[in-house]
Amino acid sequence: MANIQTLHERASEALINGQNDRALDFYKEILNEKPDDEIALSQLMDLYYDTNKELYYLTRANLNVVQQKLEHAINDCKKAINTNTDSLEANVKLARLYKITNKNLRAIDAFVRVLELVQDDFDTYVELADLYLVENSPQSAVQALQKGVDAFDAATGASAIKKKEFLQNMLAKVYFDLGDYENAAATAVDDGLKIKILLQKGDSAEAKKMLDAIKSDKLNKEQKASYYSLLAQYYYNEEKLDEALEAVDKYVDVNQPDAVSFQMKALIYASRGLEFESASNWGYCNKVRGKFEEAIVEFMHAYHSKPDDKNNLIELANLYEKTGEKFTAIEFWQKVYEIDGDENAKNILGDFYFEQGDYGLAEKYGKGRKTFSKNEELLYESEGLIGKIMKMFNR
Fold first, then answer.
1. What is the dihedral of CA 312, 314, 317, 320, to 10 degrees?
2. What's the number of CA atoms in the CB half-sphere (13 Å) around residue 117?
């Protein structure tokens, strides 16, 4: 395939020779390779201006999108629709422009119009449902997704069947979030999702039957993680806490520690009445999620339960440092140091007291004179001289 520069040269040559259709083909080929090519878009606009006003406005809309002039692009889509009310491309483009400019209600109206033009547009059903959920209208999302499922009801091709199943699972998740577990279970196609719904519904026996039918050794990494997560939830529901912990450990082996694993462990330990372990895992759960203030609260609960746990003290010290509470962080580094003379804590304390100008404490924590740089030594000597002068005045 010719490169972009060669295609531009051929398109220009065609224009010079009055071969507009040939030039148009070259510019389309350029845009297939490089959709944001402004020269090709501009030239296409010129070619369409007298021949096809709908395509002229759509091409101008694309150019405005490339140039981040989204409001102009919206207006161009409206003009294209005025030229041809049934233009699918113009209506879809308008809906998505409304969506990315956070005009959600207008986007919804535009996507509804798209579905009036074509009833089996899979992407439109997904985007419309997402918008309804963003606008806190889950029942409207249910209606849109059910309409989508119905649109693919007679599907026979593999691609169409896959699209229908995706919409069914999406619909099941909305039902699940609404607490409608009956409809969620009846709608879900994915086994993992169905098991999750059954467990929440309280139908543990059916969930276990489905779990037992899964051959874990045939699953990929992501599927194994989901399997052990569901297995842990089943054992937790059945109050088989040892088995639940074992399932969580297998989940971690596959997926590495994450917010889900810490949350599961926190719940299991809480059921066992182990306050420290539960609070600590809630702390890690919030930390992984980037909720540092909430993590501090949980690690503090753990601290009150077991004040001398070194790892918990280190977590608190680091989190207070991260949230800008340096003096509180130092208090916890002090507690860490007092446990076993931790070398890292000692260095942090030494550096902190030196920065504060408390050179006596700095030396206590290993920031001795022999470790001072030349500039630090001068500061130390200045401190000593000032101290002597102050003593002389105080006599």
1. -60
2. 18
